[in-house]
């Protein structure tokens, strides 16, 4: 069975299990480097790709329209954030407030990286209920829509990367991939694939945590992303309402958004490609530092089901976080590429920069936990 698909069956109903079997078959075919036409057919059946004619969409004349309410929200958040930075730099907010803002950014960020990304979008590991609740709460603090919508869009991004069906297609430029896609009407191909992948992403709504977070997203968003971050500095160290609102809500929210945006923009443009030089996603240290290990994006697009999203030895706070919960039994079935898989892939299609960094042990074929 493909590594990403181990032990997920009991999450799924019969229909989904059939689809997972098809996916499994496609992985088998891939691994055996077998009949690629048959593999494509299996994949197409699974995701409704049989009816999807990307050439038709690529040829279509499309002019994106500005979604004014979204644009106004983004412009307002960024303008107020400039004022928030001014308040922090000139010491007009209490030091504890600034500390609280950055602590919240990095703690809640784990809800994106270890939660909605590696757990829910990619099923790169499994998590027990308490960890899933913790991750859902952390993710909600970031305010980045509900788990279901985020994970679905991310699956579309991976499946149709660098095509018109990619929600933040890097071929449309840095700004489009960074934030433009959130303030413009989506390409019809994106809409088409969002609908198609809803049918193959039933696993998401079978998780009660995802279902509840989706159902109560607005009150949870207001409580966790707005009310509590504003109230805590006011209650515990008497920050003013205005400072707390500007810095602990707007600026914090905007910084978190931009860190996530950087994965879609910077990590698809600037960096090296040790694993696959034919794709645009890259290894970007600065993004990894800011995004808790999510900037090793060339690796991630090659092995999206690997819970580490990077090779062992890279700075990856989110991987350490998952490893910690694996130790106490809340995270399990951690999927990881073997060093042999990584080296073979790098030899086949990398840009030759793998050896310039820490190279994995070529003799090991076991999973990451036995690497060293
Ligand atoms: Zn990407
Ligand atoms: Zn991903």
TrEMBL record:
Bilayer disposition of the protein: Multi-pass membrane protein
Membership in a protein family: Belongs to the fatty acid desaturase type 1 family.
Domain annotation Fatty acid desaturase: ranges: 100-314
Organism: Pararge aegeria aegeria
Protein name: Jg17430 protein
GO MF annotation terms: iron ion binding; stearoyl-CoA 9-desaturase activity
GO biological process: unsaturated fatty acid biosynthetic process
Ranges annotated as spanning the membrane: 71-89, 95-120, 216-237, 249-270
GO cellular component: endoplasmic reticulum membrane
Cellular location(s): Membrane
